[in-house]
What we know:
Elements: H1 10-34, E1 39-44, H2 48-63, E2 67-68, E3 77-82, H3 87-106, E4 111-116, H4 117-120, H5 122-131, E5 137-139, H6 147-157, E6 161-163, E7 184-188, E8 190-191, H7 202-206, E9 210-211, H8 214-226, E10 231-235, H9 252-260, E11 267-271, H10 280-288, E12 295-297, H11 305-310, H12 317-330, E13 335-342, H13 349-362, E14 366-371, H14 389-412, E15 418-426, E16 434-438, E17 443-447, E18 456-464, E19 468-473
Parallel strand pairs: 1-2, 1-3, 3-4, 4-5, 5-6, 7-10, 10-11, 12-13, 13-14, 17-19
Antiparallel strand pairs: 8-9, 15-16, 15-18, 16-17, 18-19
Helix pairs in contact: 1-6, 9-10, 12-13, 13-14
The structure holds 5'-deoxyadenosine and iron/sulfur cluster.
Amino acid sequence: MKKKDVHVPIEEIQRQKDFLNRISAINTQFYLQNERRRTACTRTYGCQQNENDTEKIRGMLEEAGYKFTDDENIADLVIYNTCAVRENAEMKVFGRLGILKHIKEKKPDMLIGLCGCMAQQEHIAEKISKTYSHVDMIFGTHALYKLPEILYSAITDKKRMIDIDVSDGTIAENLPVKRENTSKAWVSIMYGCNNFCSYCIVPYVRGRERSRMPEDIICEINDLVKNGCTEVTLLGQNVNSYGKDLHLDIDFSDLLKMVDQIEGIKRIRFMTSHPKDFGDKLIETMASCSKICRQLHLPFQAGSNKVLKDMNRNYTKEEYLQKIAKVKKAIPDISLSTDIIVGYPTETNEDFEDTIDVVKAVEFDSIFSFIYSRRTGTPAAKLDFVLSEKEIQRNFNRLLDVQNAISKKKNDEYVGKIAEVLVDGVSKNDKDTLSGRTDSAKIVNFKGDLSLAGKYVKVRITDAHTWSLNGELV
Ligand code: 5AD
Ligand code: SF4
């Protein structure tokens, strides 16, 4: 049976681009009358996938004639690209929407849009349309490519626009993209997730797994290289599933090998891998392709086999540890990171000890740990908690203590060594310091001239902290 093509037809993309031209004409008119260009402010919550989506939003807005600002107080258009993975991400957005209400009272012509994973949930979209009447546009992840049409209607009809079409999701190629960093880029290779981990909202808000065509990915990376990019991070909720929905006899390892061949690319990263699908072929590929960074993010979520089963993760603690052992054997200096959830409803204190066990056994370079957050519509949302909030918080703090000591120890191993660093720019905390990353994704801070941004430099590591390294240019 022929598979349904999930691509948004090129004619539809062109139709959206026509809306961008129309908005651009309106914005030019505005410029001529007001002697200033209309400004847009975008904010991103959540994961790299969202960051990448915002780059597309900004690409479209730039073509529509907007100038960018970071200040909502002066922006003519504000768009929040939201995350629904945990409740605190949603609370932040609700808080910001409250502030925007006051700003809009003083600037009634301002347009406000809310998009992304929060907007894709029906109960949230309903709450926003009822309680936050100052939000002009509400559109979900599946409607991202329709932003031009939605924005055009909001400008010209002055009517509130809502598009949270429920679907399995599409792939929209050829949207304009505006990236801030020219030397490194995120490249989505697939969208959606089929795994339905029992705690997770992602499959409900991002639709089913769908892979981009390899030639579209390679073409995007070739264009990036032409613009000075040397490092790409291939993105997907579960990159190990890449290609399974294409009838092309290609898997993620094959794709990595194709990217490895691209002249001009020096570093390849990817995220996220699912332990159940992470196999020997990928390990061999990582070990044999020189451009693939010696870094792996492999979320294990929980150490207890009972909890893993309840979470619908489809692997055991032992299988996870075996896979890590294989990776370490094939790539001895690999830097490892993971995601961990503390306080899944069925997790007991004894189960939590298995999580600590895995953390101590693997010795990750870093972990991303989260307290379980109940998500409406997921199977786990119906469960009662075994542990109290206080016990969960205590376990969470203990996990951080255990990991911080390991992270520091791992970073100490770098002291005295020389590392190759791709310079990002000035450090966030200190304007006089440059910051960059090693192949193993460690942050390195050192003194140097800003003209080094985007270049690879050798840095001798002088001292180590829990989260970063300090060094001096060699
Ligand atoms: N509560 C807490 N953490 C979650 N994650 C996903 N869903 C939830 C939830 N309901 C975490 C997982 C995932 C990471 C992106 O977010 O660890 O790997
Ligand atoms: Fe969520 Fe699991 Fe899919 Fe990751 S693999 S996005 S945790 S459902």
